[in-house]
Amino acid sequence: MTSFHTRSAPKLSHKAGKKLRPLPPPQKAKVSMKAVSFFVLGLALFLSLLLYKFILSQESTTKKSSVLASVQKSQLRGGTTVNGRGGVDDDEAAAALLKTNLGLANMKSDIASV
Question: pTM score > 0.85 for this model?
Fold first, then answer.
């Protein structure tokens, strides 16, 4: 008759019997307080300059638009200038119109640069 041979368990290698070493605890990132303070200071400076630039651009836009509105009103009133004098000659009216057009061109370039 045939005999059934049972298989023996495979022999473990010499490494398998050893216990695994636990992983060391994770190291915390060592960042100095000086570096953190410089970063925060730089970020605050950058944000304040950005806000300053935004405020200046808003002021210049409102200033230009108020000048433009006053020149347009003076043109509608029939020749009185911004300072209220009557009887404006053609040269002064042309200069005011040129200044208005330059202001519009500057506003367009300011808007395009933002």
Answer: no
